[in-house]
Design a protein that fits this description.
Length: 167
């Protein structure tokens, strides 16, 4: 039961919704980073070398948390991050199905491409177009899947000879 590309484009969310997703997810990642760094900083002294170490660790942990957040949320929680849950969005693959962890890993790694964020001006975004995934409205996606399944059922049962019983 695959959805076609035109349906996926039709039910894709707007760039405005995607930007809201991004802002919410950045807030969540920032909050998680503050928690990790507060724990790290509380174990260090306040010397200059500790501040330099803190700054380096902040960058490393920031990238690591960014990857882990998007990968685990989208790969193992049904194609959704907290931002997508708030806005009713979901990530699906090119067939309109939930993406595999490999799809999500590729998508998440593509987020680190320089200028990925501005790729939305010209296309649907590199981190979507390279792994060939779509961010769609969840309700519309569920409706499209139901319609597709019903059409398949009609095709499957429509060709059979069905005898009716007259009472």
């Amino acid at each position: 039961m695959a959805l076609d590309t035109s349906t996926l484009r039709e039910i894709s969310v707007s760039n405005g919704i995607r930007f809201i997703n991004y802002l919410i997810d950045c807030f969540v990642i920032g909050f998680l980073l503050i928690l990790v760094m507060a724990g790290f900083f509380s174990m260090r002294d306040n010397s200059e070398s500790a501040v330099d170490t803190f700054t380096g660790a902040l960058n490393l942990w920031g990238y690591l948390l960014w990857f882990l957040y998007y990968f685990f949320m989208e790969a193992y929680l049904g194609g959704r991050t907290i931002g997508k849950m708030v806005t009713g969005s979901i990530v699906v693959n090119k067939d309109g199905l939930l993406p595999t962890p490999a799809n999500i890993a590729g998508r998440t790694l593509c987020r680190f491409i320089p200028f990925d964020i501005i790729s939305f001006i010209f296309t649907r975004g590199w981190h979507d177009s390279i792994p060939d995934v779509y961010v769609v409205d969840k309700r519309q996606w569920e409706n499209a899947k139901t319609i597709e399944k019903n059409m398949e059922d009609i095709g499957r049962f429509g060709g059979e000879n069905v005898q009716t019983v007259a009472w």
